[in-house]
Amino acid sequence: MTHTMKDGGQVLQVGMLARVEGEGGMHIEIRDGVVETVRLEIFEPPRFYEAFLRGRAHTEPPDITARICGICPVAYQTAACWAIEAACGVEVPPHVLALRRLLYCGEWIESHALHMFLLHAPDFLGYDGAVEMAADHPGAVELGLRLKKVGNELMSLVGGRAIHPVNVRVGGFYRLPTRSELGRIVPDLERARDDALAAIRLVAEFDFPEFTQPYPYLALRAERGYAIESGTPVTTSGLTFPVSDFTRHITEHHVAHSNALQATLDGEIYVVGPLARYTLGFDRLSPTCQEAARAAGLEESCRNPFRSIIVRGVELLYAVEEALRIIDEWVDGRVAFVDVPPRAGEGCGASEAPRGTIFHRYVLDGSGLITDAQIVPPTSQNQASIEADLRAAAQAWIDLDDHELTHRCEQAIRNYDPCISCATHFLDLQVDRS
Amino acid sequence: MGTAGKPSLAVWKFASCDGCQLTLLNCEDELLSIAGAVTIAYFPEATRAVVEGPYDVSLVEGSVTTPHDAERIQQIRAMSGTLVTIGACATAGGIQALRNLGDVREFRSVVYAHPEYVETLDRSTPIAAHVSVDHELRGCPIDKRQLLELLAALLAGRKPRIPTYSVCIECKERGNVCVAVADGTPCLGPVTQAGCGALCPSFARGCYGCFGPQDSANLPSMTRRLRAQGMSEPQVIRLYRTFNTGAEAFRAESQRVVSGSTAGTATAEEVST
User: Fold this and answer.
1) Which terminus of chain B faces fewer neighbouring Cβ atoms within 10 Å, N or C?
2) In the sheet where B8-13 sits, what is the strand order?
3) For chain A, how many structural domains are there in total?
């Protein structure tokens, strides 16, 4: 919706953003050809997770925090497990780490396929949504749905179900899948590898506007491989710090128009997500992924958020390859979990949600009850850069008609695959009205 | 009605995680058939296109937690033929209904320190506390097979077949060994409504009540069993007070344990008063 203000200014307003997870709107004011005000408005009602985590047992965060987001529950479960295990001084065995990575591959495949084909591609091909797009591009939509289904099936196989998996616990899993159970999904994953390559080729053909993002990128870097379920934060400005130091560098602020906190990195806007992971971890991708990325026109660094759909395709391919590798190496007969006896202390954990790095911090008392909890999801971290992109996009394309400009701005938001349900969960209300 | 005589479908979101409406998009094999059988008239997570109401069927996800949402659900009810609540937030207030308990002191103090800033009610309530509801799908999240059964039934003009027996029946159907009997694992299966397919016991885990209380459950007996299996009273209370904390049977039983009346032989009748 657009309208003209009494003083001649112009307002672009989208009350309800479509094809994003959760509820948000967009408000842009333009006066004399200059973008004056830009707001990503998050009116998703707060649910106060960090409040009611207080007094819960140290075993509960994986189940409870999964419910922050139906699209990326494994990101929450995994970061929660790392944080609680760190607080209790317990390390999980390598096969538990591998199974966490396998479950997480399912979430990457499912979430990236959902965003690429059902949420993002309609922008490039000029449709309101994937169902409308399917009338003219049935092959593309079926490809996306097939990939999404494999991701969901992998999550169900390892976790019990795709949304809020039941098999994750602090210290490991309730039950390990057997090699023969895992083997059942191998043919589907092998087909998904071809599908992922086709998906990358397909989205590489889209028209991408010229756009460059100047902000620092932050992503995890793992000891080996491309970071998914764990790693150490690194940035393109050369900073690296242990996960346990994240509160020293990442600060959350509350702004009036949003029910989500906005985070800064040492006081600056920064970006997490596929572009950050790709730019900071290109060398860790497999040769097939690197080759597919180059063939799709990507360089080793990507700073155009409109091209994030290609990067998601590359990551989807990587997740399929990793899933096949982990299944191939799986050995039966190991313990499903290690005990995590509670102790007083603080622990931090991080993982790479499909839309970016997520941090958890818990403080436990001697009996294992949570006395303080902090969760920094990716969309909170990206909120300031989304607004900065919006401002730059609106200014760059200010000569487009209102309808086109509004659509281009919506696209600038969807580039981030924002999860508004995730971002709106906080406890600390720090009013900053100045 | 939607276009071409097809029934129109709208999907609405209140306070929630998006997982239940995502279940519709997770029907990968059926999604395009569903889109062929109904007009998807309002579903912002999937499409920018909006068809004006009224709507033949509204699926409502999430709980009511703000004054604005309390008004919005009235408008949605007024323009919906059949209104279906989907998931634990919509049917019982969700985990965010933990705010309804008076003992979350730090939560309340934080909220009331800045009441002008974040518009929120002090209770999270299910949709049925505000408007009449025609059907409900339980679960955190809902089950895909139940969603498809509901949509198929509505399209065929018949009553949806949504079982109200307990998770125990599903365990027997799957041939699971009972985790409570064989392993002594605390399990809410006997008092929880079926629908998930007995997922947790299939993964060597006790049920934690995602689908909420089954309609004729004996909660005091369940509590005695959980205590005998070694759970402390605070653990039992927390187990009831999770994703369906606002469901009446779980709410009442957890309150009964809090007030310390578990030593006696309370009956279901006593608890419901």
Assistant:
1) C
2) B39-42, B8-13, B55-61, B80-86, B135-137
3) 2
The pLDDT value recorded for residue A102 is 98
Question: What's the confidence (pLDDT) of residue B118?
Answer: 57
Q: ipTM, 2 decimals?
A: 0.92
A316-339 confidence digits (pLDDT tens): 999 999 999 999 999 999 999 999
User: Do A300 and A182 share a structural domain?
Assistant: yes
Give yes or no for B120 touching A (CB within 8 A). Answer: yes
Read off the pLDDT of each residue in A173-199 and give the average, rounded to a whole number. Answer: 98
Q: Does B99 contact A48 at a Cβ distance shorter than 8 Å?
A: yes
- C-alpha torsion B42→B48→B51→B57, nearest 10: -10
CB B197 within 8 A of CB A167: no
Put simply, the answer to whether A52 touches B99 (Cβ < 8 Å) is: yes
Question: Does residue B142 share a domain with residue B8?
Answer: yes
DSSP, collapsed to helix, strand or coil, labels residue A26 as strand
What CATH number does residue B43 fall under?
Answer: 3.40.50.700
Contact B117 A431 (CB under 8 A): yes
Distance between CA A81 and CA A77 in Å, rounded? 6
Q: What percent of chain B stands above pLDDT 90?
A: 80
Q: A182 or A223: whose pLDDT is higher?
A: A182
Residues A82-107 have pLDDT tens digits of 999 999 999 999 999 999 999 999 99
- Mutation test of the interface with chain A: which of B203, B208, B232, choosing the one with the most A Cβ atoms within 10 A? B203
Contact between A188 and A135 (Cβ < 8 Å) = no
User: Residues B149, B181: one domain?
Assistant: no
Domain containing A73: what range?
A: 49-341+366-381
Question: Which residues of chain A have a CB within 8 Å of the CB of B49?
Answer: 128-129, 132
Interface test with A, best of B14, B39, B48, B107 (most A CBs within 10 A): B48
Cβ atoms of residues B6 and B12 within 8 Å: no
- Has residue B163 got a pLDDT over 90? yes
Residues of B in contact with A60 (CB under 8 A): 238, 242
Cβ of B203 and A175 within 8 Å? Answer: yes
Question: Does residue B136 sit in the same domain as residue B100?
Answer: yes
Same domain membership, residue B145 and residue B19? yes
Residue B34 lies in a domain: yes
Segments forming the whole domain that contains residue B252: 167-271
The domain tally of chain B equals: 2
For residues B148 and B177, membership in a common domain is answered with no
Residue range B27-31: average pLDDT? 94
